[in-house]
Write a structure and sequence with these properties.
glycosidase, 2 strands, EC 3.2.2.20, DNA-3-methyladenine glycosylase activity, 213 residues, two-stranded antiparallel sheet, globular, mainly alpha, DNA-3-methyladenine glycosylase I, 2% strand, DNA_glycosylase
Length: 213
Amino acid sequence: MSEQQHTHYIPEDGRPRCRWCAAAAGDAGYLRYHDTEWGFPVDSDFRLFEKLCLEGFQSGLSWRTILNKRESFRNAFAGFDFNKVARFGEKEVERLLQDAGIVRHRGKIEAAINNAQRCVELVAEQGSLAHYIWSFEPVALDAPEHATETEASRKLSKDLKKRGWKFVGPTTMYAFMQSMGMLNDHAIGCVTRDEVAARLKKFKRPSKLKSAP
């Protein structure tokens, strides 16, 4: 969900937020996502895999659409436990194609299953998905990037593609890096920016042995 952060959106509470919040004005869930999730550092393998999958499903759609379907996605994809999703076969693909609660796109569904299989391989090699992902953390900047992709997102995208992952282009990976807290792209003046900065400062980068849940 990469967005330009030049101006602010000020909802009814009078507290300035990142401009992209205006896309769902009046949607309390969307605002809560901005205030409590977007940009906060994540070190759970399952949550990181969820974010990777959902960013892929978002391709060509709005993030609001995906966010509103997130619980259905979690139910459909076994809580994004990649060990379980990796065992999905054609029977599960057909089931998911009939699930109106998610985005019924065969290519994206099959990509999520493929990526789960690749994730199992990656964890066996790297020790944890979190350790691998955070190894691509860029040098912290004092201001938002105002970009759709960066050198760091291109590196992550290239490496994942080399490992056989799908729907992991550099723009998608930049949106993923923003959402999982690898960089603080909250707008300067946004009420959440300082909180995210403080959390990142205290955040312990994951080790190879970080547990999956």
